[in-house]
Design a protein that fits this description.
- This protein is of the alpha+beta class and 478 residues long.
- The protein contains ten helices and eleven strands.
- It has helices at residues 9-28, 39-93, 100-108, 129-136, 179-221, 238-285, 289-321, 333-344, 373-387, 443-453; strands spanning 115-119, 141-142, 149-152, 158-162, 328-332, 352-356, 365-369, 391-399, 402-409, 457-462, 468-475.
- Strands 6-8-9-11-10 form a five-stranded mixed sheet. A four-stranded antiparallel sheet has the order 1-4-3-2.
- A hairpin with a 5-residue loop joins strand 3 and strand 4.
- Helix 2 packs antiparallel against helix 5.
Length: 478
């Protein structure tokens, strides 16, 4: 490259790029509010949410099931207690009615639940209308809780009260926790403990993955674009880690392309601008018409060079920034290749440009992007036009499922150690393949990007003609 580098120019450009990326990351990835988010806080929040939801669901299901089974349970309780209530009633009927209260107290001492006698009129507010109908019909009525039973004693106004049947509602057992409650407490305690242990072993690797992703995001936000997220321990965050790493690589690639284009174009612009400035100065100092026309021609050539540089740089930047979606179409390959070579043949001046498609099957059709692929082929041909001595040979072949185009010239060739490096942007070799022949080192880079778009590659090797061979290789049928 030509031109003088400004001190610190590349480092300043790099610092500006990192500053822009750092600002974007800090906007898109805000820090945790309230400081560092701890593993214990995440665990307890998740535990309370999950366990609370589980308990609420369990109690709701229990309520629904209990409500649905209330009628079945009441009917079972009636049939279960009918014999006991009948025996108590028969025992009372063997004694005068005036002694029923004393007799019921004697019987109460023999049962684990309470027995009593009340007036029928006192029960209207304690029972639902359907239960009142059952009571008056001589059947067993049950209260709202399903724990106290009522049975009318014959045709009298007295009602036998049996219950509460539950042990926790009996005074003598009030100081002890009911067995059902103890079982429920034990069951829920074991459930909560087992759930907590299982949740801990699930949350811990998730937390580690979150911390790794968070740290990677911080590093990227601070301008360290070499940072990558380690492999996720949980499958939940494996896709996210891969996506972040791909994003980091893409950002790093875009920033590198930006720096490369900025530095390369700034260097390339200096030469034609300096020549134009020199020509303008000379133009003001001469009155000779021939000299003025020569200087005007020089400036027009420099303007053409600037225009070509900008157009080529924009094309390269477009392929680097965001690879366009390929639109493949099947074309008659031999005819397409001949037409493309003929379209640029005039640029070869007096060079012998030959096209050989004899190795291709007859009527071969190949899938390619008719808008992008000509970029690659024409750049290879222009490169060959610059460095060929007298001959250029374009040939094509089909190898299995892959098609190849070879562009050979009879120039000085390319050293083996440089054959991969020349596909980098703004790369040129020694003076035999340098500015004297024109170009900016972008044509081969564009050719490779086009072939990558087709799922193929562009390579360099030695040509049978003695110069350089450039090959385009991609899958014939996409």
């Amino acid at each position: 490259m030509t031109g003088t580098e400004f001190p610190g120019g590349e480092s300043a450009e790099k610092e500006r790029s990192q500053g822009l990326a750092r600002s974007l990351f800090r906007v898109s990835l805000p820090r945790w509010r309230g400081g560092r988010y701890s593993l214990s806080k995440l665990f307890f929040n998740f535990y309370l949410l999950a366990m609370g939801s589980f308990v609420a669901i369990a109690f709701t299901a229990d309520f629904v099931i209990s409500t649905a089974q209330r009628g079945i349970t009441d009917d079972y309780a009636r049939r279960f207690m009918r014999g006991t209530i009948t025996l108590i009633e028969d025992e009372l009927f063997r004694h005068p009615r005036s002694t029923w209260q004393r007799k019921i107290k004697d019987l109460d001492e023999k049962f684990s639940y309470k027995l009593g006698i009340v007036e029928r009129m006192s029960l209207d507010r304690k029972l639902t209308p359907p239960q009142v109908v059952k009571l008056d019909a001589g059947d067993i009525a049950i209260d709202h809780d399903g724990d106290i039973m009522y049975h009318r004693l014959g045709t009298s106004s007295l009602v036998l009260v049996v219950g509460p049947l539950a042990s926790n509602r009996n005074p003598e057992l009030a100081e002890r926790l009911p067995l059902e409650l103890r079982l429920r407490l034990l069951t829920w305690s074991l459930t909560g403990l087992i759930f907590g242990i299982a949740l801990w072993f699930w949350v811990r690797p998730v937390w580690r993955d979150l911390e790794a992703l968070r740290q990677t995001a911080r590093d990227l936000g601070d301008g360290d674009f070499e940072a990558r997220s380690p492999s996720a321990r949980s499958q939940l965050f494996a896709p996210l880690a891969d996506t972040m790493n791909n994003m980091a690589e893409r950002v790093q690639q875009l920033l590198a392309t930006h720096r490369e284009l900025s530095c390369g174009i700034s260097h390339e612009l200096r030469t034609p601008i300096a020549r134009m400035r020199f020509a303008l100065e000379m133009l003001t100092e001469t009155d000779q018409q021939a000299e003025r026309e020569r200087l005007w021609s020089m400036m027009e050539a420099d303007l053409d060079e600037l225009d070509q540089l900008i157009d080529t740089s924009l094309t390269y930047a477009r392929f680097e920034r965001e690879a366009p979606e390929p639109h493949f179409s099947s074309v008659p390959f031999a005819e397409w290749l001949s037409d493309e070579v003929d379209s640029v043949r005039l640029l070869g001046r007096n060079l012998d440009v030959a096209v050989n498609t004899d190795q291709l099957p007859e009527n071969l059709c190949v899938d390619l992007d008719r808008k992008a692929m000509p970029y690659a082929l024409r750049n290879l041909l222009r490169n060959a036009f610059k460095y060929a001595s007298s001959r250029i040979a374009v040939s094509a072949e089909l190898d299995g499922e892959r098609v190849r185009i070879h562009v050979d010239d009879d120039g000085i060739g390319i050293p083996p150690e440089e054959r991969e490096h020349i596909f980098s942007a703004f790369t040129r070799l020694d003076r035999s393949r340098d500015r004297s022949t024109g170009g900016y080192g972008l044509g081969l880079a564009i050719a490779r990007r086009v072939l990558e778009l087709h799922g193929g590659n562009a390579t360099a090797a030695a040509a049978p003609l003695g110069g350089a061979r450039f090959t385009l290789d991609w899958k014939a049928h996409q």
